[in-house]
Amino acid sequence: MVLSRIWTVVSTNWLREQIGSQLKASKKLRILDTTFAYDRDVDTYKEGYQLGHIPQSVHFNIFKCTQSTPEIPVNLPEINCFTDYVQGLGIWPDTHVIAYDRSLPQAAYRTWWMLRLYGHRNVSVLDGGLRKWLEDGYDVTTDEPEIERSDFVAKLDKNLLRSYDDVIRNFETRREQIVDARGEQSKNVTDGILV
């Protein structure tokens, strides 16, 4: 796989071509099923990923290494724990990561941002996620790929963080564009996987 540029969004056709006829997952490409539910008691690994996923993808738990608060249900992961977790997912410094979810794109974009926040720039989101993959007639599998542990080390990029005061100040200066990827229902979902 040769990319001169890492696109923010990639198509299902592009991803299918990258997977091609490879029987094994490659260090160069890691596909993450990022589907999650706000209710931490819902096991999206069993109730989503294990039922069928894009070939060569691994389950990504967005809650791994995090502590929720009433104000922040999906907080940032602790950096050392996140380093260990990402190493276990087989994401190497030069791995192109593709994040997708089962329906709504919030989890995939959150994963895209979180990986970038912790220093991994080679990450894209699958346009339309699993739903589009299936609509395009591509197969899913229940097979789980064998993954070699990587040497990834998370490094926090504070340039991608904004405080409450930064956001308020930006309303006046309008220097940065603010995008809230959450849908209305996701702001108040308390249980169940978003499908």
From TrEMBL:
Q: Which SMART domains match?
A: RHOD
The record's section on CDD domains has: TST_Repeat_1
Superkingdom: Eukaryota
UniProt keyword Manganese, yes or no: no
Query: Which residues belong to the signal peptide in this entry?
Result: none
Q: Which PROSITE patterns match?
A: RHODANESE_3 (PS50206)
Q: Which Gene3D superfamilies match?
A: Rhodanese-like domain
Q: What positions belong to coiled-coil segments?
A: none
Q: Which UniProt keywords apply?
A: Repeat, Transferase
Pinpoint the Rhodanese domain residues. Answer: 25-142
Against PANTHER family, the record matches this protein to: SULFURTRANSFERASE, THIOSULFATE SULFERTANSFERASE
Protein's recorded name: THTR-like protein
